[in-house]
Amino acid sequence: GFLYEKKNEESRAEKAYFEALRINEKDSDVWYNLSRLFLKTREFEKSEDAILKTIQYDENHSSAWNDLGLMYADRGKYKRALSYFKKAIKIDEKETIYMLNLACTYDDLEDYQNAEKTYYRVLKLDKDYVDAWYNLGVLYQNKIQNYAMAISSFQQVLKLNNKDIDALNHLGNIYQNNLDKVEDAIQTYHRAIKINTDDYLAFYNLSFLLIAKQNNWNEAESLFKSSKIDQDFQDTYALLKMLFEYHNQNLGLAKSYLLNALDYIGNTLHDDSKDDWWRTGAIVSKMGYGQHFTEVLEESGYDIIMRPYYEAIKAYDEKDADLYLNTVAAEVREP
User: Fold this and answer.
1) Can you give the C-alpha Rg of the chain in angstroms?
2) Cys-Cys with 38: which of 43, 143, 160, 273 at CB 3.0–4.6 Å?
3) CA separation for the pair 234, 222 (Å, rounded)
4) What share of the chain is helix, strand, coil (3-state, %, to 5)?
5) Which residue has the higher pLDDT, 14 or 207?
6) What is the pTM of this model?
7) Distance (Å, rounded) from C-alpha 240 to C-alpha 261?
């Protein structure tokens, strides 16, 4: 069965595994291999049944408990997932991936104190575990808002992999959004672009910086045009296009790009591009187009769907949008 899997012959692999079970129905390893095969073929109910059979015949099968945890985490049942990861760790307390999954689940449950502690437990087992340092950096940046510790964590990532452009983009965003260290942010984004000229995120982040912090529209638009559209960040692309049309006083085109961005996100802001919407709202307000922007939100029903965001943009018009763009205080960045 395993050899058939390697050849991507899933149907023959399944038959071979069941042949093995006819010989020994209690072979936990065969049941476990079946569960992984069913995951590969996206037969999730069968995969869970096979995992439960694995545990039935070997309650100390740590990988099975870990996979069961992943299944429940994927369904958003984090408390159940937590218990399964803990069982896996009790069996094999030195397996870093089990500990990492436990930390991520605490994060999903918004139990940031335990998430932080558990990431450090991972690093105690393996001080060079890049994913643990990276996740810790994101936790400090976005949830705990300890930017010094976030910077330290991302710098550890870069010590282990100096070409990690995701870590560089996070660092650049901290310098830009939270610490108002514009030159540090610019250098960090350029470092990411130098590593990978197709790194659309660095292009987008630097474009926002040039507009918001330096009012350098020409360089921002030139930089933006040299970037590539990424399917995962179509809303950010559309928002930047909208800003350039506002700058050129083309309100009709600006509206169409805003509608494209809204259509892409559906009913909620996406975590990966949420900050771009907050940046955009403040910039639009600062440009004097806040009313037009909110009118488009009203016309498309997003004054209701994204009420907190809509109210924040309205508030920007009444206050000073520069407060958002330059503050280090998180409470000003979110409604």
Assistant:
1) 24
2) 43
3) 18
4) 80, 0, 20
5) 207
6) 0.83
7) 10
